[in-house]
Amino acid sequence: MTKRVAIFISGGGSNMARLLDSMTGDHPARPCLVLSNDPTAGGLDLAEARGVPTEVIRHQPFHGDRHAFEAAITGAMAEHAPDIICLAGFMRKLTGEFVAPWKGRMLNIHPSLLPKYRGLHTHARALEAGDEMHGCTVHEVTAALDDGPILGQASLRIAPCDTPETLAARVLKLEHQLYPAVLRRFAAGDHTPVCLSE
């Protein structure tokens, strides 16, 4: 049975676009919704151009009440009936109460080789630590930040001339390969980790 996928974004949506473009032909999933907390997110236009329904739930009117914000998200998703949620640059931390019903059905991509460097500024932290390797991870979402079973990783060797900016650009290219590969396998019921390298 084809899985219905909702993608959450907050910005330009480059990973979202790769996911949408991958869900064609014999892919075991199809997009049903792109949702953003920012009405100016460029990814919304990309989704609409591909004929994918969009919803915007701004977080500001909820004045820090995350439960009310998440209730509005749940309401917006109801008519689209997703089976899987893919976080693709969604810059709001979700509560355990929201995550729990989606256990085993919500994915996230993070720009580090988890469990290293949960949170922000991952590229600068990898350089400061003198790491030889860096990359990105797709994992199942749990209540803990950037935690959960790892479903795939893509790695590259850090170059002596790399800066946080150049490293971010190189890792983003890997993200664009890894996330679609993991989603295809995951939607088919295969949780075997995907491993890629530059």
From TrEMBL:
Gene: purN
Pathway: Purine metabolism; IMP biosynthesis via de novo pathway; N(2)-formyl-N(1)-(5-phospho-D-ribosyl)glycinamide from N(1)-(5-phospho-D-ribosyl)glycinamide (10-formyl THF route): step 1/1
Protein family (similarity comment): Belongs to the GART family.
Molecular functions per Gene Ontology: phosphoribosylglycinamide formyltransferase activity
EC number of the protein: 2.1.2.2
Active-site residues per Swiss-Prot or TrEMBL entry: 110 (proton donor)
Species per Swiss-Prot/TrEMBL record: Sulfitobacter sabulilitoris
SUPFAM superfamilies: Formyltransferase
Keyword rRNA processing: no
Binding residues annotated for (6R)-10-formyltetrahydrofolate, in chain numbering: 66, 108
The protein's name: Phosphoribosylglycinamide formyltransferase
Binding site for N(1)-(5-phospho-beta-D-ribosyl)glycinamide: 13-15
PANTHER family given in the database record: PHOSPHORIBOSYLGLYCINAMIDE FORMYLTRANSFERASE
A single GO cellular-component term on record: cytosol
Site, Raises pKa of active site His: residue positions: 146
Alphabetical GO biological process terms: 'de novo' IMP biosynthetic process
